[in-house]
Amino acid sequence: MNRFYKFLPMLAIAAFSFTGIFAQNSADKAYKPDMMPKPEVKAVRVLFTADLHSCAEKYPALTAFIKQERKAAEDGGFGVITLDGGDMAFGSLYSAFFEIDATEYRQLALAGYDAFVFGNHDFDLGLTSLAYMFYNRAVKGNFENPATKEKLLFPINITANIDADLNASGDDSKNFANALKFINHQPYVILERGGLKIGVFGLLGQNAYETSMVSGKILYEDPVETAKKVIPMMRAKGAEFIVALSHSGAMAREDSEDARLARECPEINVIISAHDHEALFQPFMVGNTAIVSAGANGSLLGEIDLVKKAGKYIIGQYELKTVPEDIAPDKGAQMLLDALKDKVLDQFGKRFHSSPFDIIDSIAAPLSVTTDSKGFNPMGYDVAKAIFNCAYFLKMAQVDTSTLVAIVPDGVLRQQIPAGKITYSDVFNSLSLGRDSRKNPGSQLILCYLTGSDLKKVCEFNASSAIDNPDTHISFYGLNYTYNSAMPKFFRVNDVYVHGKKLDKSALYCVVTDFYTASNISLAGSKSHGLLSIEPRDPNGKEILDIERKCSIHGNEQGWFLDNADISEWYAYAVYLRDKVILPDSYPLPNAADNRSNTPYLLGGAVCLLILLAIIFGIKAIRKKK
């Protein structure tokens, strides 16, 4: 017992020391996790839009939402980049002041965009008007935030595969070249945010370029070839992530231009796709490249995270967020809209003696712009009837309506007519492409002639190429045809009927369409490798070189225009709805009937077999004679 008591103090000290050590270790684990080694994380959130198309009514909410999302991301430790995929202009009546006020470009600056790419519709007024727009953003206070008077920082244009053609005749190319220098146009930009270097470059897609008003008037390079040159440049300057702004489209998925870009340039981490107005709520993955898209007209904001963790580069969260209608509007963007609206009301009133917001009709259900499986497009057919009515009303003394055909490609239908009350503005927003000869909004109507043979080629194009590119699908009024989809492309059409009578290939037929379509009709030849070359003609059958000047339809005082101005397609449709015009249907509907059959192949095979047998028996007969 005495020995035990002698050792008690020593045991107590040891126990206390052990307990203290254990407690210290527990405290380290429980209260000091930062002492543990952790991988470093750096992240950038990319905010993006595309195909805004002069959606000025949405500018105040969109700007406020972008600023809100940017702040939330920065508060969460993200660096932030804001990008736009092109076609900032032309889609509403507000685009009437694109050149003068640079409203769309100023909006990008108000919302804090870093970079943008050209879309095909940004060129709708031509190179000189686009150049003037860039200059005008720097005059008359246009370079200031209307609310704060702070100087605006304008985003950089990074369309890498285009440039001005200084060898072209005229002043357009020189004006465009000077404007590109003025805005510091570059093929790419390296943006440093959140401790990361993000390389961003832009591309104008092949289809977008070919259907633009500057096709053949600027220097253009294949997007993939450009990307292969630009990506190493960005890598050499330290770019850790590569982002492509591609105004090309991915709706055709594996066959799309953006899918090709991703396959041939796998170094690209993210492709922000535009042009076809599709909203992709899940990334379309091609290899390790994420293709994303935020739809059109400012209703959605895209967000995608680029993350570097433990030396690895990761595509993080992706989301499309709806721009809330009840968000407090941005004051600067609201002032921009209010000033623009006053100008639109004034100009529209002077020209049409009414308000763009006057009600002209009402419908119970939206008028769809989607072509169904049988080739019928409800709105396309309705617009075709409207422009037929316009040509009949204003050209009845010059045109034999029994040979008159209306042509409306799906690509000119920008959005469906909403259910309920319809205004002039609603109609314009649905048919907003182009400008007339006086630069008024909307593509003017054209009246020209095609031979029966050429008209059949239009049908052939519809039965073949429209399958690969839905925007080129045509709705007709006054014309029907049958075809066989089992036959090779460009050899499918059987019979064509104009107002119920079989087509005469040698006769001239009057065609009404819009200038945008008429000026692109030569695409049928290039898309068919020359098989379907089509030439607009005058009433005497001579080819027309200046379609805009010689073929425009002008108004008169009988309910159309008071100034003998060009009639735009959208206005012809508005009058058709306003006046409750009723035209008989062009039966049968849809315009095209697919009589699919393999009989031609069987007959062809039988003929080939008979010929082969005849050759064999002929050879045998010759040998016997010998």
What does it look like?
There is one protein chain. By secondary structure, the chain is an alpha/beta fold. The strands form six sheets. It has a six-stranded mixed β-sheet, covered by helices on one side. Strands 6-7-9-10-12-11 form a six-stranded mixed β-sheet. A four-stranded mixed β-sheet has the order 18-23-16-19. β1, α2 and β2 form a beta-alpha-beta unit. The protein starts with a helix and ends with a helix. The relative contact order is 0.10. Residues about 1-35 have low confidence and may be disordered.
What's the helix and strand layout?
Elements (H helix, E strand, L loop, with lengths): L1 H30 L9 E9 L9 H17 L3 E6 L13 H4 L1 H8 L4 E2 L10 H10 L19 E2 L4 E3 L7 H11 L5 E6 L2 E9 L1 H5 L7 E3 L2 H14 L4 E7 L9 H8 L5 E4 L10 E3 L2 E4 L7 E10 L2 E11 L8 H22 L6 E5 L14 H18 L8 E6 L10 E4 H7 L14 E7 H13 L9 E4 L1 E5 L9 E6 L2 E2 L5 E7 H5 L3 H5 L19 H5 L17 H10 L13 E3 L4 H27 L1
Parallel strand pairs: 1-2, 2-3, 3-4, 7-9, 9-10, 10-12, 16-23, 20-24
Antiparallel strand pairs: 1-13, 5-8, 6-7, 11-12, 13-14, 15-17, 16-19, 18-23, 20-21, 21-22
